Amino acid sequence: MHRDFFIDARKQLIINLKQKGIVSETVLNAMLKVPREQFVPKVLSKRAYEDISLPIDKQQTISQPFTVARMTSLLEVKEGDKILEIGTGSGYQAAILTELGAEVYTIERHFELHNQARILLSTLYPQHKIYSRYGDGTIGWSEHAPYAGIIVTAGAPEIPQTLLNQLDIGGKLIIPVGDEKRQTMHCVVRQDESSFLDYPLDDYTFVPLIGKVGWKA
Ligand code: SAH
């Protein structure tokens, strides 16, 4: 596949996302920079810029670009923010976060996905602060807390208190919550030590969040 094909397709995707209501210029710019074709299986690379989720290894998916754009917009990342992602998958969402200047912490429960994403991200962004970990993300990553933002890219049965506890004051948790079929995106903002404001937003379908405070395997 020719390099120009991907660049044109990527520009077209940005236009598509704008038409679907994504307004954040910083998010759109980050998405214009990340080569999504490198995060999908080779046989699907020519479909990398369609606004759809695509299968990756271990029966998981790389989220639809619109969903990535929407969740990233909700996070309102500022340069230097510490962001924790649960569900590294392909590493695409982590790449968007690093393009926005975040210090990225990302956790994946499948070793193979964790490892592939770690290698790809360190190749594309050798100088960036991206830290990946293999394990159950539902318990968070307390050593580096508090975080300005936590983004969960798998569907949860409930909002994990463990993750809320790792938010900075004013920090946000973006998480899809529901049953196995359908989830509502929640934006939870930490007001102070013990109070949180929970905003339920629009509906999505994610692969399940599996772990101690998630669905059982
Ligand atoms: N953000 C990813 C989306 C991957 S799909 C991307 O941009 O490609 C969600 C991922 O969450 C899957 O890879 C799945 O294995 C992972 N996952 C599910 N439960 C998890 C948990 N408890 N901890 C860490 N990762 C989890």
Structural class: alpha/beta
Distance between the termini: 38 Å
Number of strands: 9
Number of helices: 6
CATH class designation: Alpha Beta
The H-and-E topology, N to C, reads as HHEEHEHEHEEHEEE
Could you give me the name of the CATH homologous superfamily? Vaccinia Virus protein VP39
The amount of helix comes to 25-40%
Q: Please state the overall shape, judged from the principal axes of the Cα atoms.
A: globular
CATH topology: Rossmann fold
Strand order of the largest sheet: 5-4-3-6-7-8-9
- Main sheet overview: 7 strands, mixed
Detailed description of the structure:
The chain is built from six helices and nine strands; from the N terminus they run ααββαβαβαββαβββ. By secondary structure, the chain is of the alpha/beta class. It has one domain: Rossmann fold (3-Layer(aba) Sandwich). The strands form two sheets. The protein has a seven-stranded mixed β-sheet. Helix 1 packs antiparallel against helix 2 (25-33). The site of S-adenosyl-L-homocysteine has 25 residues, from strand 2, helix 4 and strand 4.
